Amino acid sequence: MLQQILRDMYIDPELLAELNEEQKQILFFKMREEQLRRWKEREEKARMEEAVLRKTARRKQSNGKHVQWLRGKDGEVWVWVMGEAPGDKPYEQISEELIAERARQQAQKEAEELWRQKEAEITKKFRDAMAQEKARIVAEKWKIEIEDRKAAKLEEEKIQEELKKREEEERLKGEEQIRQQEEIRARELYLSLKQAQQHGQHSDDDQEWEEQLRRSKAADEERSHKARRARDEYRRQSLRAIQKGRVAGLSNLFQGTSLNNDQEIKLNNSSARPLPSLSAASSNIWERPSRPFSRDVIIRWFKEEQIPRRAGFERNTNRIAQWFHGIISRQEAEELLMNKSEGTFLVRVSEKIWGYALSYRQQSGFKHFLVDASGDFYSFLGVDPNRHATLTDLIDFHKEEIITSSGGELLLEPCGQQKNPPDYSPLFE
Hints:
Blueprint: H1 2-8, H2 13-18, H3 21-60, H4 91-141, H5 146-199, H6 204-244, H7 252-255, E1 264-266, E2 272-274, H8 295-306, H9 330-337, E3 344-349, E4 355-362, E5 365-372, E6 379-380, H10 391-400, E7 413-414, H11 425-428
Helix pairs in contact: 3-6, 4-5
């Protein structure tokens, strides 16, 4: 199951909801490790392809132009840091010039806009005046004899010249006013920017950005802390399992164990039931779906795959373990554990994955851990890196070793049945 999640880089939301916070963090750590591994593979592949391309290009263009980095006395690429090299201007001077340049550009931009408005007003003013004067002259001289039209033309040209001269004077005067306003505005902007820099004033946008940055850094630190804790837990469990000699080998060591058809399973309520034999399996070929989708399919899976592996049995006996339960919900498990002491636990068949859920009573509530049984071993999904050959091995291991370093969960007391017949009866019928 874990390998499938890492291969697809996706976990079903319903399955994710079954994981506690510790399992989620360790699963996130493993997925992040897989992302880094894939990224390194892509980078290495890209580097090799780039090397091949460079080699091919050099072969084709051995006499062509190429770029060579300038190197310093130490053999490394030469780097110039503004303001630190000999002859560079001090940072304060550079900052001062940048502020002055920004103020000058802003004032120039405002002056250009004012000049466009002023020029439009001047053009319109004199165009209208010229049109009115021309209309007046035409109206007065139109009826004059042809001999007087030349005089009218000369008079019109004279007036036009005078108007153009006045327009040019108006333009020069307007340009001078705009230039003076630009200089004043540049000084105002420079002083304003300088004052803001000296007093460390920030706009609302800057303050909002800084607040978002602070929150982001805090979240990053929290994720890093959880990831470190997950890595430490992963290493601790691996080392401890090796020391205890309980890291799982291959489950085929146990698959050779056959059950006697005449043996009986002694249930916790002392009632006897015959143990199904391997030959009693359905004549139909069992092919496990990708996910459990009904109780009938889960029961079939348990009979076909888990009974031969002695899942739920006590070690070296044919008795059902006291901690084993059938297909019950999380709510039913918590009701069974409600009045129990801290460290009480039970194992129930999961409806979400091919495996089990270990429900644990802690002082302040309950915890639920998924146990992956989709392969040839048993292990906690996202928490315990150790692989156990049988479900009983996993339970016995964590009677002595805590499940997580943060929670310190030890399996102290099994929670038995409260129903008759037991809730696991359908699994052995």
